[in-house]
Amino acid sequence: MSFAKPEPKDRDDGPSLLCSVAGCESRWSVKLDGQMPKCSHHQWQQPTHGYTKTYQQYLADKNQPAKTVASWLPKEQW
């Protein structure tokens, strides 16, 4: 016979304030559309595999026009 209070089974602490990366104990500070909230270290770090552009590099490439073959050489020569 036990006199201890039973543990509540359906305890909801609300949304988690921690980074969504497994093992990270930091609070999240960055949440982009369609992604889980992460701490700034994990959000902006360079990936080690797969698509290796950071979000800043992606935005910079998106805002710059694509280079064509004609832009490789100076036009003065032609």
| Helix-strand category | mainly alpha
Shape assignment? rod-shaped
The helix-strand sequence is HH
Main sheet properties: none
Helix count, DSSP H or I runs of 4 or more residues: 2
Roughly what percent helix?
A: 10-25%
In total, how many beta strands?
0
Q: What is the CA–CA distance across the termini?
A: 95 Å
Residue windows where pLDDT falls under 50 for at least 5 positions = none
Instruction: Give the overall average pLDDT.
Output: 76
Query: Radius of gyration from the CA trace?
Result: 24 Å
Strand proportion, as a percent range, falls in under 5%
List the helices and strands and how they pair.
Elements (H helix, E strand, L loop, with lengths): L39 H5 L10 H9 L15
Describe this structure in words.
The structure is a single chain. The protein has 78 residues and is an all-alpha fold. The protein has a domain at 16-61. 18% of the residues lie in helices and 0% in strands. The protein has helices at 40-44, 55-63.
What's this, in brief?
With about 80 residues, this protein is mainly α. Helix content is about 20%, strand content about 0%. The protein contains 2 helices and no strands.
Kindly list the characteristics that best describe this protein.
2 helices; 78 residues; mainly alpha; rod-shaped
